[in-house]
Amino acid sequence: MSLHDPRQLGFDADRLARIDAFLADKYLASGRFPHVQLLVAREGRMVHFSHQGAARGDSPTPIDDRSIFRIASMTKPVTSIAFMMLVEQGKVALDTPVHHVLPEFKGLGVYDGGGAGVPFATKPTAAPMRMVDLLRHTAGLTYSFQNRSNIDAAYREQRIESWHGNLDLDGFVAALGALPLEFSPGEAWNYSVATDVLGAVVQRVAGEPLDRFFERHIFAPLGMVDTGFMVPADKIDRLVDCYTLKPGEGRALYDPGVKSAWSRMPKLVSGGGGLVSTALDYHRFCSMCLNGGELDGVRIVSRKTIDLMTMNHLPGGGDLAGMSRSLFSETTNAGTGFGLGFAVTQDVAKSMMPGSVGEYYWGGMFSTAFFIDPVERIHMVFMTQLSPSSSYPIRRELKTMIYAALT
Description:
The chain has helices spanning 13-28, 76-88, 98-101, 131-136, 150-157, 169-177, 194-206, 210-222, 279-290, 303-309, 320-323, 348-351, 394-404; strands spanning 35-42, 45-56, 59-62, 69-70, 109-111, 122-124, 242-246, 250-255, 276-277, 294-295, 298-299, 336-338, 343-345, 360-363, 369-373, 378-383, 386-387. It is α+β, with helices and mostly antiparallel strands. The protein folds into 2 domains: 6-79 and 209-404, DD-peptidase/beta-lactamase superfamily (Beta-lactamase), CATH 3.40.710.10; 96-206, Methane Monooxygenase Hydroxylase, Chain G, domain 1 (Up-down Bundle). The strands form 5 sheets. An 8-stranded antiparallel sheet has the order 3-2-1-16-15-14-13-12, sandwiched between helices. β10 and β11 (298-299) form a beta hairpin.
């Protein structure tokens, strides 16, 4: 790990340093976040990497460059890259109907009444669910935590999303295949388990477990040595505590590092949110994307595949403000499209934040985040551990202050 002189890469060092002071004052001194870690790079070269706060509540030991974090939905771009690797090999395509690979989804209908002990009524979909719908969240699926429909209530009742429950990936797909969709594929955008389903697609098309595919084809080639679906015993001391914000009570311990659920392999391997990683590992993933699919002589996908993934794929060129039915997402909606695994900035003015057209990004439920700007050639990785990610406007603040440090 080496830091480069910010001035040589077009950053004002003092303005970068004031981000740390801002985080310390607003988020650490106040107790809002347990810890914060910020990595900023340009052309793949780190210009800023800071760590503040304790790794665990029962110890003053600070977080550092070896700290391991639960990255939740920052898993989704990894799964999307894995799928596109198979597309490049001619094994599947974006317009392949999902039921061609997952026959459990054949004949899926759209919700048309019923529930709460009454069998669901359905109507036929206007179009088949295609792989592109899984990648861009237009599949008609949902998340149980949205608490907004009879379908997400059925997800909760059947514990479909429980990583340590009774379902493996095949059982997960079968359970989803027995429930209606919320809308016909392609008609709306709804943040959902679609990327978990995509993980099942990768597993079946590749003919090997999803975690094994990630390790062999992405993590090992990129040198992402601390990324996976569990933390091995010899690294568990590096996993930081994770918290949740309880209304009226404040921050409460959610998953202690020393006794973490991530210390054992999940039965349901979640391509939508199961990974743990470090800032340095995810920095390598972002560098690969920024570099057109290649890093240190190792090519993961082609430059044109990255170009395709970071275009807006919402039907009709729409944005999330017009298409989203989601009560929860990792992004503000105005001026934002969605590509193949990433949110994509389409209109900087509508976003009301500094940025570039074509910048792509996402985050995780524990308030982690990243963005990649192919115009300015910069990327950011931010780590902390507090859910829900909507608790504070940290992503907007960081983005604004990083762009303010450009010279």
